[in-house]
């Protein structure tokens, strides 16, 4: 777990070749609209498991007009010394993500052992009113930061679930032993997923409850939609084979969970809060989580705050900078350098475009 001390982008979106040497603390990216600020944050988000902060297709990320394929390489300053991590695609396989750690091929999920990255983007403003999937993904990123094995369990669960769906959809009757084997895998990994999420929600809830009422609204969190351990999941899957066959998918399991968020001060569902209140709730959750992860793992996550500063009033902006000072590496974007005038000289400032 660490921070980035060097970042090199090759043919990544609009960046043919970009090298940055971020310091610890704030990394401020400014530039006009379309300069490629969010692209840089997206590149950093791909140094963690998953599809990055836009959830875009890999083939969309290679530079249009470039040779095909892209590269994102970073040096991590870790306690044990520098670690080189890299991800990207090759021109011949634009949809296949390659990952290297210290030069050796690795899976994307192992990136979680080296770097924790969390982000807040304008697209997440609608998180509380969107379908459950977006909140589940958000919850899973929060969980992954506390439990690096979470991505592995999620990947194995999804693979087993897809295989079970295919088996149930096939014309010929499913081999019961094979079906049971897949359900056992789903139950084992699903139980681990649920336990890790519940633990993350409980820890984060405690942290939020402890946080004094400040300029960012406080949230209460609960896991909804589906809860249960491995035994319960296995029993449910067995019992619901006919129903799942008719539906064409598994109707119960941790893939149906949701994160319910309440505005603590108002005792009201986050979805009912105003747009500004929803932004503040989300920011409050991300900040509390970053502090929680730093406290529990001894390593602050790398935070990517896309266009967050511009949407805060000056008092909240100052409060944000105050709260994040000394947190670790915090990447922020904005079109106006003046937004970041108050964060001091220690920041790494980069103008793009
Ligand atoms: N695969 C690609 N190849 C080349 N350019 C791309 C690719 N994908 C996106 N772009 C370009 O990147 C630019 C958008 O970059 P980005 O979203 O990082 O901008 P930004 O600096 O964050 O802007 P804003 O301030 O408007 O949010 C657009 O001009 C877009 O055309």
Automatic annotation (TrEMBL):
PROSITE patterns, per the entry: RECF_1, RECF_2
Domain of life, per lineage: Bacteria
Domain RecF/RecN/SMC N-terminal: 3-332
Keywords associated with the record: ATP-binding, Cytoplasm, DNA damage, DNA repair, DNA replication, DNA-binding, Nucleotide-binding, SOS response
Residues of the signal peptide: none
Residues given in the record as ATP binding sites: 31-38
InterPro entries assigned to the protein according to its UniProt record, in alphabetical order: DNA-binding_RecF (IPR001238), DNA-binding_RecF_CS (IPR018078), P-loop_NTPase (IPR027417), RecF/RecN/SMC_N (IPR003395), RecF_2 (IPR042174)
Subcellular location: Cytoplasm
UniProt xrefs under Pfam families: SMC_N (PF02463)
PANTHER family in the record: DNA REPLICATION AND REPAIR PROTEIN RECF
Function comment: The RecF protein is involved in DNA metabolism; it is required for DNA replication and normal SOS inducibility. RecF binds preferentially to single-stranded, linear DNA. It also seems to bind ATP.
Family (UniProt): Belongs to the RecF family.
Name of the protein in its database record: DNA replication and repair protein RecF
Species assigned in the record: Sphingomonas insulae
Gene of this entry: recF
